[in-house]
Amino acid sequence: MSELRGKYIEAVARAADEAALEEVRLAALGKKGEISAMMATLGKMAPEERKTAGAALNILRDEIDAALRARKAALADAALDARLKSEWLDVTLPGRPRRAGTIHPVSQVMDELTAIFADMGFSVAEGPQVESDWYNFDALNIPPEHPARQEHDTFFMHRAAGDDRPPHVLRTHTSPVQIRAMMDRGAPIRVIAPGRVYRMDMDQTHTPMFHQVEGLAIDRDISMANLKWVLEEFCRAFFEVDKVELRFRASHFPFTEPSAEVDIRYSNVGGQLKIGEGEKWMEILGSGMVHPKVLQAAGVNPDEWQGFAFGMGIDRLAMLKYGIPDLRAFFESDLRWLRHYGFSALDMPDLAAGLSR
Ligand code: 2NL
After folding, report:
1. Is residue 252 a contact partner of residue 289, using CB atoms and an 8 Å limit?
2. Ligand 1: which of 141, 185, 189, 214 to mutate, judged by most atoms within 8 Å of the beta carbon?
3. Domain 105-341 adopts which CATH fold?
4. Can you give the residue ranges of the Aminoacyl-transfer RNA synthetases class-II family profile domain (predicted)?
5. Region 11-18 average pLDDT
6. In what helix (H) or strand (E) does residue 215 lie, and over which residues does it extend?
7. Which of 36, 215, 331, 353 fits a 20 to 30 Å CA distance from 17?
């Protein structure tokens, strides 16, 4: 008996998992188990012998059963401990930062100037980037033989042989958007038209796609004085300076009469540009009073209405405001652009050191 007890208690202690424990239980207490088999022999014993053997077997069975239960509980505890250790999670750890991009400088400038002109009552107009040559040229008083058509270095859309629809171009300015706005809404009107424009030009200061914003204000008695105030107000707000000085130089555009190119006063001390002070002048835009023929083409009666229009390059504005020296910055991955974009490689110390050398 005590040999059996020792054997099974030890087997229970050795069982490494629940399956091993179950094997021990079957071997001892299962229907065909050793203890059960011994119990089955009780019936053949003499009553006195049966009494003592039966009692001893019952005690032995209960002892083994108790050992099995205790071992089972201990194994479950150990398994839970192991899980708690391996599935441990420190909820107090800081989150891993997700790298976020930043808005493109050109988009940012578009947002800024849209807000500034909105404060002055201008709404935003949009239109197609593929235009008929009527909207892009004819309506703007640039007839087929006009030299400006060539100067614009226009991209023409392909036409299959036999396709006799009017020629279409990639718009060379956003003026056609304003022609459409006048035709749709009539006068009076105040709109700006920011967007992509295309010219077949590619060198250190030109890209074939660039961004322009044009402005248009038509009413019964709009004058160049209103144009001057709107542009000064815009420059003050955009460049965030109290004082700006603009210089209007007589010029020529087919779509305005009179026309003026506008320069802004600035200084350049050690490469640091300052707007509104200094001895230098920088051309920032073209402007004028809308030509009567243009109003006519857009269905606005020039005997009743007049107004100003202007156009400027957004890429240049972005470069001026955010200190980008020239267009090569785009092509040669100038660090200032990359930083502005939040280019993640710049945060790797070794690479950043290599780049700034
Ligand atoms: C420049 C010059 C200019 C306009 C654009 C315009 C639009 C209409 C009618 C008349 Cl619908 N004019 N736009 C006028 C003068 C100058 O742009 O140097 N742009 C970068």
Report:
1. no
2. 214
3. BirA Bifunctional Protein; domain 2 (3.30.930)
4. 107-332
5. 90
6. strand 209-219
7. 36
Phi and psi angles of residue 258, each rounded to the nearest 5 degrees, phi first: -70, 165
* Statement: residue 324 has pLDDT above 70: no
The lowest-confidence range among 35-44, 188-197, 222-231 is 35-44
Distance of CA 127 to the CA centre of its chain: 23
CA of 287 to the centre of ligand 1 (A): 6
Q: How far is the CA of 312 from the centre of ligand 1 (A)?
A: 8
- The whole-number average pLDDT for the span 60-71 is 91
Terminal Cα-to-Cα distance of the chain (whole angstroms)? 87
Q: Is the pLDDT of residue 156 over 60?
A: yes
253 lines ligand 1 (CB under 6 A): yes
The full set of domain ranges for the chain reads: 1-87, 105-341
Give ∠ CA 100-104-110 in degrees, rounded to 5.
135
What backbone torsions phi and psi does residue 326 show, to the nearest 5 degrees?
A: -160, 180
Interval between CA 137 and ligand 1 midpoint (Å) = 12
Distance CA 123, CA 264 (A): 25
**Based on the number of CB atoms within 10 Å of its own CB, is 1 exposed (0-12), middle (13-18) or buried (19 or more)?**
exposed
Q: What tokens were used for 295?
A: 């109003």
Residue 45 has pLDDT above 50, yes or no: yes
The whole-angstrom separation of Cα 262 and Cα 255 is 16
Tokens of 129: 């980037």
CB neighbours of residue 280 within 10 Å? 13
Three-state DSSP class for 129?
coil
257 annotated binding-site participant: yes
pTM for this predicted structure? 0.71
Which of left, alpha, beta for 241 (phi over 0: left; psi -120 to 50: alpha)? Answer: beta
Q: What's the pLDDT score for residue 357? A: 45
